[in-house]
User: Which sequence fits this backbone?
């Protein structure tokens, strides 16, 4: 670990260990002086303090070079005692951050240096007492370091297992979602696709059947064209549901229909006219400005939903579609139609208008709908058109 990666907690721990090494080491020297056979001279005492202070300062490098710091302290450990706590901290650091073999070798080397110091500076106590004491201290430090390392490894392993389990849960959830999307796509293809294909086939047969009135032939043509358009859009939706984002999604039998734009609104209005509705279109847009794709698509869906409601509730009635605006001022889309005599009754529960409201809100616009005082039902949307 480098100094740059040292966390706030590491700084606190290192500062605490440095202070403990300084205070503990100097207290050890002060206590040891009273039991030595040959008293310290002033020069020897100053040298011991100086070496001990240098070892304490070296502890700030222990995270980056634990083995080097511990090995560099071997000679001071053999001739001084004021760095005793610093020697133990260095051994502990090696035990935590390095392999057990290296930790054992470094610990034994420091134990040997401590015994050399006991021989060079004999005390009133027996050398065997120093041997047992140093063996117990260094063994305890090594055992504690190995315990800390094992605990860290266990926590790291548990953390990795938790992260792996979380990733596996997310993968399983994504697979479940993808499976559900594929199931929905199959249902839409097998059920809706089949039904709409039958509608288009039967409408085509009615259109070419001899002896049919002109209005029936025209209505059959509208039904057939609308069914074919519905099939194209259904294939597009199925393609989106089947797309896994990996480039290996299911391949559609027919290329998806292009997404609608503002330029498709006149065709949509014309289809409604052919189906029997009296629709007036007023589009006032700047010719030099091209609206973004999502903006045109949202406007198209608003007009489509409004005209669908006209066909459902005001059969043969009149409707007015207004599309106005430009960059910076926004796009204003309005669909207005007279209310039937019993009022505007949406037998589908209004889910289409609710979906439109959410769609427009997601695009950063606003949508209002409802009856007005002049006896009309109005769908009014304002969409954002960036400059």
Assistant:
């Amino acid at each position: 670990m480098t100094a740059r990666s040292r966390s706030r907690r590491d700084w606190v721990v290192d500062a605490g260990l440095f202070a403990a090494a300084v205070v503990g080491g100097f207290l050890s020297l002060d206590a040891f002086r009273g039991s030595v056979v040959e008293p310290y001279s002033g020069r020897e005492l100053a040298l011991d303090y100086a070496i001990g202070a240098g070892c304490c300062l070296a502890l700030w490098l222990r995270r980056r070079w634990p083995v080097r710091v511990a090995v560099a302290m071997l000679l001071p450990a053999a001739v001084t005692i004021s760095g005793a706590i610093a020697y133990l901290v260095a051994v502990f650091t090696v035990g935590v951050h390095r392999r057990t073999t290296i930790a054992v070798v470094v610990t034994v080397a420091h134990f040997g240096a401590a015994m050399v110091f006991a021989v060079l500076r004999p005390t009133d106590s027996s050398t065997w007492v120093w041997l047992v004491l140093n063996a117990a201290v260094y063994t305890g430090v090594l055992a504690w370091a190995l315990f800390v390392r094992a605990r860290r490894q266990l926590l790291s392993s548990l953390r990795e297992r938790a992260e792996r389990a979380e990733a596996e849960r997310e993968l399983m959830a994504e697979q479940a979602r993808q499976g559900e999307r594929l199931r929905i796509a199959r249902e839409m293809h097998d059920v809706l696709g089949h039904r709409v294909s039958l509608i288009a086939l039967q409408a085509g047969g009615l259109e070419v059947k001899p002896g049919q009135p002109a209005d029936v032939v025209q209505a059959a043509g509208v039904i057939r064209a609308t069914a074919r358009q519905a099939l194209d859009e259904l294939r597009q939706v199925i393609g989106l549901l089947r797309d896994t984002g990996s480039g290996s999604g299911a391949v559609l039998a027919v290329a998806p229909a292009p997404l609608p734009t503002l330029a498709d609104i006149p065709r949509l209005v014309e289809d409604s006219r052919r189906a029997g509705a009296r629709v007036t279109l007023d589009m006032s847009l700047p010719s030099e400005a091209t609206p973004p794709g999502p903006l045109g698509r949202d406007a198209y869906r608003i007009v489509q939903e409004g005209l669908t409601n006209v066909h459902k509730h005001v059969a043969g009635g009149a409707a007015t579609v207004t599309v106005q605006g430009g960059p910076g001022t926004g796009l204003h889309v309005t669909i207005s139609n007279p209310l039937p005599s019993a009022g505007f009754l949406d037998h589908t529960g209004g889910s289409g208008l609710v979906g439109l409201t959410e769609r427009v809100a997601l695009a950063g616009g606003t949508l209002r709908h409802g009856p007005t005082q002049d006896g009309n039902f109005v769908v009014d949307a304002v969409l954002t058109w960036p400059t």
Remarks:
- Confidence is low (pLDDT under 50) at residues 245-254, 343-349.
- The two ends are 52 Å apart (CA to CA).
- Residues 271 and 369 are 23 Å apart (CA to CA).
